[in-house]
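@channel anyone free to eyeball this complex?
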Amino acid sequence: MIECTMHGVAAASAAGVSSQALSNTHIQQLVEACIEQTGEALIQTHAASRADVLHAMDTVRQAQAQGQPSDLLTAVAELHGAGEDDLAIAVEALGARLAATLHPSPQLIPFAGRLIAPTAFYESFDRLHKLARALLTPVIFAEDTGSIGVASANPIAATLLAGKIQDLVSRRFDIRPFLTIARLDYPSWTLITHKHFEL
Amino acid sequence: MIRFDGILFNEHNSRRIMTELVRHDSAHAQLNHDQVAQRVSRYSFMAALAKLSGLAFFPRVAEFCESGLHASCDTGVMTRWGFAPLYRDGQDTLIVAIVNPWNELPETYLAARFPQLKIVKIVTLASEISRSIVSGAVRRGASVWHEGLPN
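replying in thread with the prediction:
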């Protein structure tokens, strides 16, 4: 699981994020790492042109700067002309392309969006909740903090959050939690981010 | 060899499981194989299996079980082999909960019954498999007891 898909976290660590507490600056750095890595993966998998990705990145950064979480997959899908009716299909297709670049490839598990929010975990790690909100990646379960799950339409965002959770939980509890990463379909993703983050 | 929730893992896989558990919590390095069932939580153990097999682990799945899928399966077989078909995603994917990722019998069994579907496995607790089987049967009004009680 997470060890095999840590390239995002490695890049964030290189930016000085990994070994420190999660300040607002660190959260912004991780969000920026997510935008950049997602954009790079979209280009490498030929899911979008560089010009489209750069345009969508600007859109996402502007939204983030206004405190409104936003994801590159949705921005690219909208840029490609996906309307309300086909946005779900377009976002899921982009997510599948990105998932194929990760090993193991996070599977699409739509019912993961129906698990009960781990409020105690969020309360215990309130900065992680803030990061999860910024990455639009909910924590879907946390059992004894030894086994934790995250899910998103964007598997790179989920991988980044999983890495940060592993880092912070390890330091607080001296155990290395097992992380599950799942992909969500667009309706489940929209619903669960609304529930977890009051968006 | 490790025995956990009624499953006996071979020597090779037991060693791999122990390595994973020690990486998770260094205190587990003190455990013998026969102490694992008493000293390691089910969540951690099953998550370790999932990690070793590259699958996702979900601690709760029974609530999401589509009971209609169970009509095509024998409850005795599901109980014995530790699996439950859960969820049909669109036209081409069947999500199946399993306990032992090294047991290929569930996939073989389900592939024969749902040949048009790609099977996606996730790991869960044995108790969740039992709950899925029972809740599926209750919703269908079928009996699950004719081949023995689920664990």
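from a first look: The mean pLDDT of chain B is 91.
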